[in-house]
UniProtKB/TrEMBL annotation:
It comes from Trichodesmium erythraeum (strain IMS101). This is FeMo cofactor biosynthesis protein NifB. One of its GO terms (molecular function) is lyase activity. It comes from the Bacteria. Residues 61-313 form the Radical SAM core domain. NCBIfam families: nifB. SUPFAM superfamilies: Nitrogenase accessory factor-like, Radical SAM enzymes. Keywords: 4Fe-4S, Iron, Iron-sulfur, Lyase, Metal-binding, Nitrogen fixation, S-adenosyl-L-methionine. Pfam families: Nitro_FeMo-Co, Radical_SAM. InterPro entries: Aldolase_TIM, Di-Nase_FeMo-co_biosynth, DiNase_FeMo-co_biosyn_sf, MoaA_NifB_PqqE_Fe-S-bd_CS, Nase_CF_NifB, NifB_C, rSAM, rSAM_sf.
Length: 489
């Protein structure tokens, strides 16, 4: 075990990395490729395209950051789960921004952030409306960034309605990653989600509009596949409406070449002002979400389980939104420090660190694992990134949940929580909520924890493990001890 040490968010090759030898390449090893795919040959063929994209690669999201440019306010459909808000700094969900940017301001911001956060590899446009309902602003932003920062991947997130009209511009700008939100493939279910669709300067209500949306989404999937553009499909799980239907959605989008499927929980609270929120529509439980994701995790489809349902102006690592540091007023006073060579060197350091982690994981999973898979258990992990247990219990804003069966440790979800260390104010209530959020886990892994919360967590039936090491390694070690104690008992 490594001793706890404070680690910079910049993953330079430090004492930890030096303790792990560089691994040999493992052809077709999906774990080393970082995609989470069930099809090893798929991972091998597209590795270069996803290796540093935090949304398309579960492994990459530990190390690489993204930026969303809020340049697209208009939308061409209405969703019952959406309420686009502006100047809303305290909410974290899709469709929310604090301020809009012009394409020129967004390009300037991308260059500033690429210098300030060199692990930022992706600039995406995801709203706050639909990027392709604002095509000129969207494509002008992409053009400026592509010209000035050629190493930054361009990423687009859309409902797909207008995508067939813009596929040529998408290809011309080398936008290699496109996300389409598809919540149904049966218009009869879609009418419960979409009140209206605006297409070709006309508003269509009810089933007529939903049929148009469905047709265009299916056409968009075909066009992206033919253009060899990687496609991620987002789906919002809405209990009682499309929860039983999303397995069929998964089957259809998989058949049309989608690379990864992200099934997200409905965010539904009255204060958000959405139709669903105001009418009491509940979101799924963590158990319901996991059950559906597990059912869809078949047939070669990658499941995205590390999504944070980001704001349309998010900046930084997934789970670490730094947008408040980069307001329009602040960035317009900053001089961009974009340096392509320095960024390449920084990314090479990240990849060296990742290679060492791969070998550490492989070592832990081959020398200490049990002979065959046993009953799975869940473990909660506090992590600041880099694939390590490296965060203090009281500083965690979320816990990563791993399912461990003795042969493998598999990331399955993240669960947001309130800080426990609040300077004395509200700490008891916060701790209760944290324990409730991870109550189905057998243990919690942290770099450090105070004696008082440690006792309370233990009293709630969870073991507490203080360590600083590779997540998969310590998870498998714990499983072996856990099963051994059960057998003795």
């Amino acid at each position: 075990m490594l001793q706890p040490t404070e680690v910079s968010s910049q993953p330079t090759v430090n004492s930890f990395a030096n303790m792990i030898a560089t691994p040999e390449k493992q052809p077709g090893d999906c774990a080393s490729k970082g995609c989470g795919s069930n099809e090893q040959e798929v991972a091998s063929s597209i590795q270069e395209r996803i290796a540093n994209h935090p949304c398309y690669s579960q492994e990459a999201h530990h190390h690489y950051a993204r930026m969303h440019a809020p340049v697209a306010p208009a939308c061409n459909i209405q969703c019952n789960f959406c309420n686009r808000k502006y100047d809303c700094a305290n909410e974290s969900r899709p469709g929310v921004v604090s301020e809009l940017l012009t394409p020129e301001e967004a390009a300037h911001k991308a260059l500033v952030i690429a210098g300030k956060i060199p692990q930022m590899t992706v600039m995406g446009i995801a709203g706050p409306g639909d990027p392709l309902a604002n095509p000129e602003k969207t494509f002008r932003t992409f053009e400026l960034v592509a010209e000035k920062a050629p190493d930054i991947k361009l990423c687009l997130s859309t409902n797909g309605l207008a995508l067939p009209d813009h596929i040529d511009r998408i290809k011309a700008l080398n936008i290699d990653h496109v996300t389409i939100t598809i919540n149904m493939v049966d218009p009869e279910i879609g009418v419960k989600i979409y009140p209206w669709v605006h297409y070709k300067r006309k508003r269509y209500r009810g089933i007529e509009g939903v049929k148009i949306l469905h047709q265009k989404q299916m056409e968009a999937l075909d066009l992206l596949r033919e253009a060899d553009v990687l496609c991620k499909v987002n789906s919002v799980m809405i209990p009682g409406i499309n929860d039983k239907h999303l397995e069929e959605v998964n089957r259809v989008v998989r058949s049309k070449g989608a690379f990864i499927h992200n099934i997200m929980p409905l965010i539904s609270s009255p204060e958000h002002g959405t139709y669903f929120g105001l009418n009491g529509q509940r979101g799924p439980t963590t158990e319901e979400l996991k059950e559906l994701q597990d059912k869809c995790d078949v047939g070669g489809m990658n499941m995205m389980r590390h999504c944070r349902q980001c704001r349309a102006d998010a900046v930084g690592l997934l789970g670490e939104d730094r947008s408040k540091e980069f307001t329009k007023e602040a960035i317009m006073e900053m001089t961009p420090e974009y340096d392509l060579q320095k960024r390449k060197e920084f990314h090479a350091g990240i990849e060296g660190f990742r290679s060492k982690l791969v070998k550490a994981k492989a070592s832990g999973q081959t020398t200490e694992k049990v002979a065959e898979a046993g009953p799975p258990i869940l473990l909660a992990v506090a992590s600041k990134g880099n694939g390590l247990v490296n965060q203090h219990f009281g500083h965690a804003k979320e816990f990563m949940i791993y399912e461990v069966d003795g042969v493998k440790a598999r990331f399955i979800a993240h669960r947001k929580v309130d800080h426990y260390c609040l300077g004395g104010y509200g700490e008891e209530g916060s701790l209760e909520n944290i324990i409730k959020a991870i109550s189905d886990c057998k243990a919690v892994f942290v770099s450090k924890i105070g004696e008082s919360p440690k006792e309370k967590v233990r009293n709630a039936g969870l073991k507490v493990v203080e360590t600083y090491d590779v997540i998969e390694t310590v998870a498998l070690d714990f499983y072996k001890q856990f099963i051994g104690q059960l057998q003795v008992a």
